[in-house]
Amino acid sequence: MSKSYWIWNYGDYEIFHTMSLHLRREEQGYHRPPVWKISAPYVSIQFIKQFYCEKGYLICYMNGCGYIDIDNQRYGEKTRIELSKGEHTIKIFVSKTSGLPAIFVESDVCPSDGTWISNHFAGEFSPVGYNVFFNSVQRNPENFPFEYKNVLPISKEKINNGILYDFGTEYFGFLNITNACKNEEIRVFYGESKEEALDVENTYITDRVCGENTYRLKQRAFRYVYLKTLLDDIEISADYEYLPLEQKGNFRCNDELFNKIYSVASYTFHLNCREAFLDGIKRDRWVWSGDAYQSARINRYLFADKEIEQRTLLGLLGREPIEQHINTIIDYSLLWFISLYEHYMTYGDKEFLKRVYPMAKKLLEFCETKLNKEGFIEGDEKDWTFIDWSDIEKVGAVCAEQMLLIRAYQVMSLMAEVLDNGDKNLLEKKYEFLIRQVNAYYWNEEKGAFIDCYKSGNANVTRHANIFAIMYDIATKEQTQKILKNVLKNDNITKITTPYFEGYELDVLAKLGDFKAVEDKITSYWGGMINLGASTIWEEYDPKKCGIDHYEMYGGKYEKSLCHAWGAGPIYLFGRYYLGVYATSVGYETFIVKPNLGGLKEISGAIPINGGTVVISLDKEKLRVVASKPGGTLVWDNKSYILQPNKAFEIIF
Amino acid sequence: MSKSYWIWNYGDYEIFHTMSLHLRREEQGYHRPPVWKISAPYVSIQFIKQFYCEKGYLICYMNGCGYIDIDNQRYGEKTRIELSKGEHTIKIFVSKTSGLPAIFVESDVCPSDGTWISNHFAGEFSPVGYNVFFNSVQRNPENFPFEYKNVLPISKEKINNGILYDFGTEYFGFLNITNACKNEEIRVFYGESKEEALDVENTYITDRVCGENTYRLKQRAFRYVYLKTLLDDIEISADYEYLPLEQKGNFRCNDELFNKIYSVASYTFHLNCREAFLDGIKRDRWVWSGDAYQSARINRYLFADKEIEQRTLLGLLGREPIEQHINTIIDYSLLWFISLYEHYMTYGDKEFLKRVYPMAKKLLEFCETKLNKEGFIEGDEKDWTFIDWSDIEKVGAVCAEQMLLIRAYQVMSLMAEVLDNGDKNLLEKKYEFLIRQVNAYYWNEEKGAFIDCYKSGNANVTRHANIFAIMYDIATKEQTQKILKNVLKNDNITKITTPYFEGYELDVLAKLGDFKAVEDKITSYWGGMINLGASTIWEEYDPKKCGIDHYEMYGGKYEKSLCHAWGAGPIYLFGRYYLGVYATSVGYETFIVKPNLGGLKEISGAIPINGGTVVISLDKEKLRVVASKPGGTLVWDNKSYILQPNKAFEIIF
After folding, report:
1. What is the mean pLDDT of residues B442-460?
2. pTM for the full model?
3. Which of A283, B52, B416, B507 is deepest in the core (most CB within 10 A)?
């Protein structure tokens, strides 16, 4: 029998799971939906397949209600239908008001797979969505394919009529309680920190159970669990829920702190890789486009999981009409374009690009409704100009947003070129114009830097716009040198306090070859958290703070996420600049390996290159590189060497 | 305590109930979703209320999950929250992935009512939707407020190991079976006709139950019920489900057949007035815009229920983006505009007009994407050019559609004038241009008629476009006279076979004063059905057919609806042309009463006039008119008389 999969209208799977996770946030006893529009899957779908057969049969299963139309004859689901010799047109109609309308067709001649087409009874027909995991009737695509592992606390301590458990590191999963007493109400306090779990008045996430001897609670994030119970022999464990991902990239060096940071960052990142890239595993568990942009960069050097990037891009984009910026944030709309392009460059999935481009164009059109008379993108009262949690002056059009818009136009023009759809020239004109405008309005020769905004007249300088200008090659060489001196290496310019923007800053410093600055910052900033006992990387870290003040954010005593994806930036830095691997054409058809020890004595590791791997080791005496596929060029000591696939290239110094 | 209502995001209630009913169709054992895009309510909503109070409290109940934010402090639902003295901003966030997100706030100072505003976390805030029926926490707005009456069959007959019940007339409701035997599987066959109920292989709607002594089945439409059962003492009844509507209009005359037709039409119509105007109560139970247009015209002379018209208009329009014609039918998009305008003229609800106009404009913009180079609206492969179930030549742009587009432009320009939004002039130019084009391309001087289409070169003439041309005053006086002779009174032009278009034809004949033709047609056509024993009016009637052939349609032996709303047209005709009442300015602020006996000896009745009633009686000797509100002008014998409110005006001949 041919292979069947659950099939759905393309994009609805991602929208369904993004919707579900966005509406799952709970805190302090209530649900907290996101502050932006939530897209839902279409409720009614038609699937079509045309084919010829000698004879055959089919049985259709539905996630939803509907019927099967074969050559204009109607049938119900779950019954075997015989097919005669000839051409057939099968239409299957299915609707579901909550969930993901989908079908599974068991057949020897027309199994449900990627050859079927569908639409929502409007718009063009296009190939359905499916996923090889959902290859049996029982594997309902509404149940996201996580895996589970039972984990036990590593320690237990009686405190104030209760028991504090430490699982040793953070987990996301279902807490199991056994040996409870039916009559006792047990209160459960989850903590990313010990302090949070014990501070029962202020714990962010709590549960309360009664009436049974055993419980399985909702999925929560925690390292510590404090149970208010008088029972001594109560027992707990957790079903850790995670996405099975193969770690394709790795990095080691002689600095054990760096190795520890790499490992903690990897674990932090893995916890946040789920239906999509989450920001943090405890609090929002939402998908934020800027966070996701950085996650995608990290992912490419660790798991290189194409699927999660595509799910994230589709889930963020949502459903037409586009009525607001992604997450309501201007920069997060713009980073979405850049992420799409970098995704395409990494994996070379042109089919995906083709499918997403029309909606990307609509998002760009939406952005262009927000241009002011100078051509700059500007927020109105509904838009959030985020950039970073930092004191950037945000009066009128903000420079950092323009840097992203320039890059967004550039990548859209590059993608238009790939798709050869005629949009390229106009997009090029737009970014060329915008670069001229940005230089005219934001470059301040006196300060030797781009200023935050021009409307206030303050000529305030922060790091952010200047970092983007270098990151996306918008600054000229001369401007870059000035920025380095006047901004990046200038201690009078406010320091970055989020790992999010620290990731961008270090990207730029590494790009400019300032490995010492990169290492100092990793040591002090990430190392700072590790030295405080962090087993996962935090949302924000301010070395000046003390004790539980570290856990405060957004006005909540423990509202800060202590396991935040954007903290995993060093994975990207080590892979991109130390092992030095990056694509130079679509899908790693060609790529550069340009290793750099920086201030280290010894580095080694592997980097995924879209279906292959490059393995690198470098110390003071020897460089060794093996790439598993062709297209690689080793750059070392200002010379280039062609890498032969699966053949070790060694240089002894 | 102040009065609280369930409140929701405006429009979502109508979209939710339209979605639900559209997805409820079942036949021959399977669900059958509509062939167009189904809109769903937004899944996540924010509600806002700002106010001052000395002190107060509130308790919020949610249909969905979420939280309450009072002055930036968060609370869960169902708890009493005390309010201190001062200004307060209350935001309530609620999400629900299936159903209607809504809230109910019990409070002495800020009860949930029409003063709250909401949006879907995007777009503008606007006043919430609510309905005075939903005035307690228990009355969940997802449960449509129908009423119920238990009805019993009027006869019972044992036939072929089963029992046939006749309820005397058609009902929609839940069948109850009592005194059944747990072990016996009972099969249930519903029929609008006796033949259908007994033809168990072909019955359109069936049920099958087993395992209990009593059953309550799903809502179905039926007059006859045939139970396959061996039990003699089994008993059935039905819970008739209906919308409680006050009959505000009525009509009687000396012709008992006409009185019977009026009464059967009224009942037929009432059965189809539910969440929205349905086409027929048995088969689709869908909302079709053309059917609904005619239903609205009928409603205005019978129930004058403003609410059902608004629910229908909103439900049909659905959610952005507009990707297809309403019901995929070109004429049904265009009739939607006309219906909106006639609705406004009848009830004068400017607030509703203001709310709907922006989406109406988007629908018109969508229609304009379908204009050909001559400026005519033309269907592509995704569009259905319906007009009527009749042999109209449909090559390229079809004339009847242009007539509707002209009227659509006209009514949009009239509504733009009411709202003073600057759209008027352009819309006027558009319809003036289109009238010229229609005359140039479709008027055939030789045939003295508008032809179906110009592309084929056949100059085929049918009644439809010509009827619209007169109905909407597009034809000149001279053209009108030619059409009357060459088309309407010409037996060589194919006759109308649906009560739908017959309604329009008779409207035009009555308008032109040909009451004899109207009466002849009502007698032969509607009378024909009555004489065949119809207790409700059918979807289509062809006097040439015999026996059960009358029940066949769309290739199904019993697929024709025998209780179809569009059959109720005579209610409109009697009210509009015999009692002769119609509005001449918005909301019946002024109106005409122009009674006409036609060929009858005696007519009497009442017509609702937006908050008032006109009572009329007329025979060969006397005319008597009483209007309960000012603004009326009686037109009689080419003279006009001002009607004084509540004062009988009598003329003795």
Report:
1. 97
2. 0.96
3. A283
DSSP labels, A270-294: HHTBSSSB-SBTTTT----HHHHHH
Touching A: B residues 56-95, CB under 8 Å: 65-67, 74-77, 93-95
Q: Has residue B1 got a pLDDT over 70?
A: no
Q: What is the DSSP letter of B398?
A: B
User: Helices B306-317 and B350-368 meet at what angle, rounded to 10?
Assistant: 30
Chain B contacts in chain A segment 92-121 (CB below 8 A): 93-95, 97-99, 120-121
DSSP letter assigned to residue A130:
E
* Cβ pairs bridging A and B (under 8 Å): 118
Instruction: Please indicate whether, in this complex, the C-beta atoms of A38 and B95 are within 8 angstroms of each other.
Output: yes
Residue of A32, A38, A76 with shortest CB distance to B29: A76
Q: Contact at 8 Å (CB) between A130 and A139?
A: no
- Overall size of chain A counted in residues: 653
Q: Is the pLDDT of residue B132 over 80?
A: yes
A30, A98, A324: residue with CB nearest B67: A30
Mean pLDDT for the stretch of residues B118-147: 97
Phi-psi region at B62: left, alpha or beta (left = phi > 0; alpha = psi -120 to 50): beta
d(CA A526, CA A499): 8
Residue B12 burial (CB count, 10 A): 27
* Residue in the block written with tokens 């702190």: A257
**Tokens representing residue A427 in the block:** 């997009």
Asked whether the beta carbons of B379 and B370 are under 8 A apart, the reply is: yes
DSSP string spanning A289-318?
HHHHHHHHHHHTTTT--HHHHHHHHHHHH-
Edge-to-edge, what's the strand order for the sheet holding B581-583? B581-583, B591-593, B632-636, B639-642
- Per DSSP, the residues of B521-555 read HIIIIIHHHHHTT-SS--S---TT--GGGGG-BTT
- Of A58, A77, A82, nearest in space to A2 by CA: A58
Query: In the predicted model, what is the mean pLDDT of residues B375-384?
Result: 95
* B44 contacts B94 by C-beta, under 8 angstroms: yes
Three-state SS letters, B88-153:
EEEEEEEECCCCCCEEEEEECCCCCCCCCEEECCCCCCEECEECCCCCCCCCCCCCCCCEEEEECC
Q: Is B38 within 8 Å of A74 when comparing Cβ atoms?
A: no
Residue B43's nearest CA partner among B69, B71, B15 is B15
CB-based contacts of B496, cutoff 8 Å, min separation 6: B388, B390, B463, B502, B505
Mean model confidence pLDDT for chain A: 97
Tell me what the mean pLDDT of segment B609-633 comes to: 98
User: What would the pLDDT profile of B341-354 be if each residue is shown by its tens digit?
Assistant: 999 999 999 999 99
Range list of β-strands (E), B229-351: 235-242, 250-253
- Tell which residue, A539, A537, A629, has the closest CA to residue A581: A629
Q: What is the token pair recorded at B77?
A: 């639902």
Minimal CA–CA distance to B36: which of B311, B330, B280?
B330
C-alpha closest to that of A56 among A4, A111, A5, A113: A111
CA dist., res. A76 & res. B24, Å (int): 15
Using CB atoms, which residue from B36, B43, B324 is nearest to A40?
B43
CB A47 within 8 A of CB A7: yes
Q: For A585-620, what is each residue's pLDDT tens digit?
A: 999 999 999 999 999 999 999 999 999 999 999 999
The pLDDT, as a whole number, for residue B121 is 97
What's the CA gap between B589 and B591, in Å, rounded?
A: 7
Token duo for residue B559: 């697929």
B164's CB contacts (< 8 A; 6+ apart) are B156, B157, B158, B194, B197, B198, B224, B225, B226
A258-287 pLDDT, tens per residue?
999 999 999 999 999 999 999 999 999 999
| Structure token pair of residue A241 | 């829920």
